[in-house]
Design brief:
This protein has helices spanning about 15-20, 25-30, 75-80, 115-130, 155-165, 180-195, 210-220, 235, 260-280, 300-309, and strands at about 45, 55-60, 85-90, 95-100, 135-140, 145-150, 200-205, 225-230, 245-250, 250-255, 285-295. It is an alpha/beta fold.
């Protein structure tokens, strides 16, 4: 008598390996954004490396860190602003995921924790990268851990990432206060290890986004394409209707009163300020932003976003 396989039970507070593996077909249907700076060799993508068969692609405003030898003097003279020549060359590129599993991500008022939504989105991007023939790497971090996977090719690269996420201690660890220094440390590490031409996908609620983190994101975008996935719970954008509510944080229960209009306004403005910070970053060359609410389907949102690209 043969055993009948039963589907893995999904929970709103953690992810399992089988659940992430089952996202493979949906991930393979995604077409990730093309690199912005391009250069011609072997491979399935265009990337910012100069090599044999280099072909001019476009001119864009000069950015800190650009090679001075690539300045487009004609465009610079015509516009009065320094411009850089962009070339293209086909080659496989690294896709590196920066997955935030800090305490602030272990939160939800509906559907699933932000961390669960982020893990599912990371799995979708991972399977898309493998299907496209890209190298896949990751930095998975929290307040007390920082796990790094160097970019590798093939299905095994996706499986080791999904295994790392599924067994991560963050799912069962006590909820500590958010440490923005953990995010900065992980982002600095990502900036050092990401090769020019990489696609860096940052999955986070970006709680604690400050001048140092913004500066590090801009530095990363100087040599890599950066995709910001802002993951938030709907209640973070707007408090529920006026009234008294009981909420659970860890093992403690609190009561909040949302009747005060001044508090409601300040709350909404604080979230909008963080969202505007991200929008401002996304106006810079090489940085793109997609918002993903915890009650939305990551596959649907990502498919729509990359289709527009």
């Amino acid at each position: 008598m043969s055993a009948i396989a039963t589907p893995e039970r999904q929970t709103p507070t953690a992810v399992g390996l089988r659940e992430l593996i089952q996202l493979k077909p949906a991930g393979e249907a995604l077409k990730l954004a093309r690199p912005r700076v391009r250069a011609f060799a072997a491979g399935g993508h265009l990337s910012p490396f100069r090599g044999r068969g280099v072909e001019f692609d476009e001119s864009r405003p000069y950015q800190e860190g650009d090679d001075l030898r690539t300045i487009d003097w004609r465009v610079t003279a015509r516009t009065g602003r320094p411009h850089t020549k962009v070339f293209r060359e086909e080659r496989n590129r690294p896709v590196i995921l920066w997955l935030d599993l800090r305490a602030s991500m272990m939160f939800a008022t509906r559907h699933a924790f932000k961390s669960v939504v982020a893990a599912r989105a990371a799995a979708l991007v991972a399977w898309s990268a493998v299907a496209n023939g890209d190298q896949l790497g990751a930095l998975v971090f929290g307040e007390s851990f920082n796990d790094e996977l160097r970019p590798r090719l093939g299905r095994r690269a996706a499986l080791r990432l999904l295994q790392l996420v599924a067994v991560n201690p963050a799912w069962t660890a006590p909820r500590a206060g958010v440490d923005s220094g953990a995010a900065l440390h992980a982002l600095k590490r990502l900036t050092r290890v990401a090769r020019p031409g990489s696609l860096a996908v940052l999955l986070s609620d970006f709680v604690g986004l400050d001048a140092d983190l913004e500066r590090q994101i801009r530095q990363l975008a100087g040599h890599s394409d950066v995709q910001l996935l802002h993951i938030y719970d709907p209640i973070e954008a707007e408090l529920p209707p006026p009234g008294r509510y009981r909420i659970e944080i860890g093992k403690r229960v609190h009561t909040i009163d949302t009747s005060d209009m001044a508090i409601r306004t300040r709350y909404r403005e604080a979230f909008e300020a963080r969202r505007e910070q991200l929008r401002s970053l996304a106006r810079r060359p090489g940085i793109r932003l997609v918002a993903l609410a915890s009650d939305q389907d990551p596959a649907t949102v990502l498919k729509r976003h990359f289709a527009r690209r």
